[in-house]
Amino acid sequence: MVKKEMIAMLLAGGQGSRLGVLTSKMAKPAVAFGGKYRIIDFPLSNCINSGVDTVGVLTQYQPLRLNSHIGIGIPWDLDRNIGGVTVLPPYERSSNSEWYTGTANAIYQNMEYMESYHPDYVLILSGDHIYKMDYELMLDFHKENNADVTIAVMPVPREEASRFGIMIADEKRRITDFEEKPKNPRSNLASMGIYIFNWKTLKRALVAMAEQPALDFGKHVIPYCHQKGAFLYAYEFNGYWKDVGTLHSYWEANMELIDIVPEFNLYEEYWKIYTKSEIQPPQYFSEDSVVETSIIGEGTDIYGKVYHSVIGCGVTIGKGTVVRDSIIMNQTQIGNHCEVNKAIVDEEVRIGDHVRLGVGGSVENEIAPHIYNHDIVTIGERSVVPNGITVGKNAVIFGVTTGLDYEGSCLPGGKTLIKAGEEQ
């Protein structure tokens, strides 16, 4: 019989619709981050650094890129004979086949997988946050308090508390009550969506609540445990934690990596962030190139100037081109004499010569101002922007475009150009 003290279940099925065109062809946890990583590398690296060697990754939405990135888990040392990393998509059952309908429903549908390890504890994680956390310390806290459920919380400013699930705890950190996005919050402890359950408690709650539509931890499982008198505790985390759920927060988190003293250090020896790396040649900088406060991925050739930007692997930036405050992802090619200001350019994009991105005044996006804002220009993966095009702020391009798609060689600020076949 295989027995693991604690196994992790990593929820990575999210669509991440507020990332717009970045997630139209891939799940949010697979989105590139920080030059050479993907968002899911952070919770996976946390697991292996915390001594958790059995991780079930629950995928659903556009899982292809995620599955090939995780593979058998070699980069995270999770290629184990017993345990390791297992990708768990929804699958056909003999009686009925169903998609995962909520976070807890996804866990419920993988009861057999968890049961096979006879765990004492189950760690539930989300695949789309950027942070470093030692789950072992959280487990120690859980055991010391004889808790049934421990919820990781983070103090947030009171004025922002209404955006989160808020935990109300006594001086011993036992949770007495909780409120989902309260108008007048009674506490500033926001749930981080990271839970440790005693396996028996989790199993009982999932079975009891199984019939709930869109079974969810925050809405159903935690309230059920509380109602049944389970011991719920709040574990306070004070490190760096970022939900990169919007284009602006994603851009911001990347930019924070290149501060002179970054709040979030990717290069600490004792807490490595692991990723699947292609074998790449070193970076090449031509004699005319200039690079200041930027991250430049391997295999990238810089002939122009790059300021305060995060550049992925295998990128080419042409002669006379100036890139500022931008994120350029893997294998993208930018031509000569271009100007790129505050842009997020996805993977394998081709930008011609004399293209200007992010120029002119600030204009609200006409179709989805709640997604495309803060003057960021967004270009979806494998898009093509032809020579001599000017693109305004808060504009979006997705697809293989030609000169005929631009009136007067221009896409004004706030406009959206999505070619047929590239669904949002």
Q: Overview of this structure, please?
A:
By secondary structure, the protein is an alpha/beta fold. α6 packs across α7 (217-227). The longest helix is centred in the middle third of the chain and has 11 residues, at 199-209. The chain is elongated.
Short description:
16% of the residues lie in helices and 27% in strands. With 424 residues, it is an alpha/beta fold.
Q: How far do the termini sit from each other?
A: 47 Å
Number of helices: 8
Low-confidence segments, given as residue ranges, are 92-97
Query: Main beta sheet: strand number and arrangement?
Result: 9 strands, mixed
Shape, per Cα inertia axes: elongated
Q: Indicate the radius of gyration in whole angstroms.
A: 23 Å
Strand segment count: 33
Q: Helical content, roughly?
A: 10-25%
Beta-strand content: 25-35%
Integer average pLDDT: 87
Structural class: alpha/beta
